[in-house]
Amino acid sequence: MTALNVLLVEDNAALRRAMKAGLEKTGQVRVVEECASGEEALALFLDLSSGLLAVLMDVALAGALNGIQAAVCLRREYPRLPVVFYTIQDDDAYYRDFLRSGILSHYAYVRKSNYLLPESVLPLLRDAAAGRSFIDPEIESRVQEVRHKDANDPLVLLEPNEQAVVALLAQGLTNEQIAARLGYRDARAVSRTNGQIYTAWNLDNSTTDEKVARTRAVLIYHRRQLLVWDENGIPCATDSLGRWTPIGT
Predict the structure, then answer these.
(1) What is the pLDDT of residue 51?
(2) What are the C-alpha distances in Å from 18 to residues 25, 31, 36, 45?
(3) What is the pLDDT of residue 55?
(4) pLDDT under 50: residue ranges of the chain
(5) How far is 203 from 194, CA to CA, in rounded Å?
(6) For the chain, how big is the Rg over CA atoms in Å?
(7) Three-state SS for 227?
(8) What is residue 115's DSSP assignment?
(9) What is the largest CA-CA distance in the chain?
(10) Which of 28, 64, 86, 153 is least surrounded by Cβ atoms within 10 Å, i.e. has the fewest?
(11) What are the angstrom distances between the C-alpha of 121 and each of 4, 67, 75?
(12) How far is CA 67 from its chain centroid?
């Protein structure tokens, strides 16, 4: 069986050495390069010779890029590059990055504690190289939990600059104070951003004035749940059946 060329990305030097030795001892893997960060992985990968190659990578890495983000960058250069992620971290941010990555095949995503021995990693690498995919059931459950959470989070309807503005708005800052805090040259830019927030959260369709829309935006932000107000001004949220129900009932 042809040895699989692997790029190993792990920021713990002792673990990286142990993993390399263990994998190469099987006679089925050749670790062609190793590094500690996603940035290094990208630089190394672009210099590697062609041939069958997979990446074995921790999700939590040194540097600015985590393993998921690094894989996205690598796959821009080499579409469907086989990647095996392992992690000990249970962080919504990583699951969110995985959802946003759009990775569909040629991958495995597993708990480090369950898949760290060479004999457990090797089949994952082989399957990823063959185009198959595998996700640890524990991780899949958490990914779906985050997907559901985000689907109901009004912040996902806002762009990053709008999220920054509404976070300060929810602290009670004025437009001028928000502009100063965020380094805007013109405080009117905050007012324009507020308008986009109201539109995204359907607060611009009512006959209420800007002060009421601003107050309602703050309520939505703090509840992390979209709300609507009926003709009597009663706030309603969706229940488990998707029905709009007055809050507190």
Answers:
(1) 65
(2) 11, 12, 14, 21
(3) 96
(4) none
(5) 10
(6) 24
(7) coil
(8) S
(9) 73
(10) 64
(11) 12, 17, 21
(12) 11
Q: Write down the CATH number for the domain with range 4-151.
A: 3.40.50.2300
Which ranges of 7-159 would DSSP assign to H, the alpha helix? 13-25, 38-47, 67-77, 92-101, 118-129, 137-151
**Per-residue tokens: 203:** 């607060």
Residues in the chain: 249
- Residues 17 and 34: their CA atoms lie apart, in Å, by 9
DSSP-derived letter for residue 156 is G
Long-range pairs for 45-49 at CB < 8 Å and ≥24 separation? 45/7, 45/74, 45/77, 45/78, 46/77, 48/5, 48/7
Look at residue 78 and give its three-state secondary structure.
coil
Backbone angles phi, psi at 213, to 5 degrees: -60, -40
Predicted structure pTM score = 0.69
Is there a contact between 45 and 21 (Cβ–Cβ < 8 Å)?
no
Residue-level pLDDT at 204: 84
Residue type, 170: A
> How much is the pLDDT for 115?
85
C-beta of residue 71 within 8 angstroms of C-beta of residue 81: yes
Residue-wise burial string across 84-119, b where 16 or more C-beta atoms lie within 10 A, e elsewhere: bbbbeeeeeebbbbbeeeebeebbbbbbbeebbebe
28: which strand partners?
A: none
pLDDT digit string, tens, across residues 33-67: 999 999 999 998 877 755 668 999 999 999 999 99
Q: Which residues pair with 62 in a beta bridge?
A: 37
| Residue ranges of domains in the chain | 4-151, 154-246
Tokens 């590697």, residue?
48
As assigned by CATH, the class of the 154-246 domain is: mainly alpha
